[in-house]
Amino acid sequence: MKLESLNWDSEFFEIKVGRIVFNNSESDLKKLLDEAKKQNYQLLYVFTDKNTMLSSEILNQWNGKLVDRKVVYKKEVSTNIKKDKFVFPYDDTSVNDDLLGLAYLSGQYSRFRLDKNFPKGSFERMYKEWLVKSVNGELADEVFVAKEADRIVGFVTLKVNNNNGNIGLIAIGKNAQGKGLGTQLINVCENYLNKCSVETLTVPTQLDNLQACKFYKKYGFEEDSVINIYHFWI
Ligand SMILES: CC(C)(COP(=O)(O)OP(=O)(O)OC[C@H]1O[C@@H](n2cnc3c(N)ncnc32)[C@H](O)[C@@H]1OP(=O)(O)O)[C@@H](O)C(=O)NCCC(=O)NCCS
C-alpha cells in the first residue's frame, strides 16, 4: 500500500490531494495517513474493493467518510442498428446554459458534489471543465444531444479507448425523463461504436443512483466492477 500524490486534483482544488489503494491492513493505513499528515496532505482518497468497508474506529479517528460506491456497468456493443431519431451529434464547440445544467444533473451523485468539504463551487467548476473539454474533443470523441422541439433536453459524451467506448457524462432533463430519450442516447452510442467496430461499452455511476442503475440494467448492461471510495480530510 502506498501514498500517491494526485497533481491534477491538487492543482484543481488548490489543496494537497493524494490517493491510497487499501490492501486490507488498517494499521498500515493509519501509518500512511500519519505520514500523509506530516507531508501536509489535506485530503486522501482511499479506495477499497467491493466487499471491504473500513471500520468506524479509523473513520472517526481520521475524519474519514464513505462518499461513493462507484460501479462500472459494461455491455457488448450490439450489432443491430437501433432507432435514435431524436438524437443528433453536437456540432458546436461552445456550451450553453442548457447543456451546462445537464452536465450538473449528470453529476448529481458525484462525490465532488456530495462531499461539502471541498471549496465552494468546486463541483460546478469541475463539471463545467469536463463538459467544455468534452465538447472541444479533449475528453470525448463524440457528444450527442437529445432534442425536443429544437431544444436540447439531454446529452451524452463518449470516448473510445482500447476497443471500448466509455460514457463520461449523460443526462436527460427532469421534464423529459421517462420518455425513452435516455435509451436513445445509449442507442446512438452503440450505433457509433458499431460503425467503428468497437466491441464494448462501459459507463461508470454510483450505486446510490438507483434511477441510473435501474436504467443501465434494463438496457442490458451488467455490473463489471464496484469500488468504495472514502475521503479522509486530515
Ligand atoms: C438515467 C437517465 C439518463 C435515464 O433517461 P430517461 O430518458 O429517463 O430513460 P428512459 O425513458 O429511456 O427509460 C428507460 C428505463 O429506465 C428506467 N427509468 C427511467 N427513469 C426512471 C425513474 N425515474 N425511476 C426509475 N427507473 C427509471 C426504467 O426502467 C425505464 O424503463 P420503462 O420506461 O420501461 O420503465 C435519466 O433519468 C437521467 O438523466 N437521470 C439524471 C442524471 C443521471 O443520474 N445521469 C446518470 C449519470 S451516471
Low-confidence segments, given as residue ranges, are none
The distinct bound ligands, ions and cofactors come out as: coenzyme A
Order of helices and strands: EHEHEHEEHHHEEEHEHE
The count of strands amounts to 10
CATH class of the largest domain: Alpha Beta
CATH superfamily of the largest domain: Gcn5-related N-acetyltransferase (GNAT)
Radius of gyration: 19 Å
* CATH domain topology of the largest domain: Aminopeptidase
CA-to-CA gap between the ends? Answer: 18 Å
Helix content: 25-40%
Number of domains: 2
Structural class: alpha+beta
Helix count equals 8
Overall pLDDT metric: 96
Q: Main sheet: which strands, in order across? A: 1-2-3-10-4-9-8-7-6-5
Shape: globular
Describe the structure.
Helices cover 34% and strands 33% of the residues. The protein has 8 helices and 10 strands. It starts with a strand and ends with a strand. Bound molecules: coenzyme A. Coenzyme A (COA) is lined by residues 105-106, 108, 170-172, 177-183, 205, 209, 211-212, 214-215, 218.
Features:
234 residues; alpha+beta; Aminopeptidase; 2 domains; 10-stranded mixed sheet; 8 helices; 10 strands; binds coenzyme A
Write the topology of this structure.
Blueprint lengths: L2 E3 L1 H7 L3 E5 L4 H13 L4 E7 L6 H7 L1 E13 L10 E3 L7 H10 L4 H4 L7 H14 L6 E7 L2 E11 L2 E9 L8 H15 L4 E7 L3 H10 L2 E12 L1
Parallel strand pairs: 2-3, 8-9
Antiparallel strand pairs: 1-2, 3-10, 4-9, 4-10, 5-6, 6-7, 7-8
Helix pairs in contact: 4-6
The site of coenzyme A has 20 residues, from helix 4, strand 8, helix 7 and helix 8.
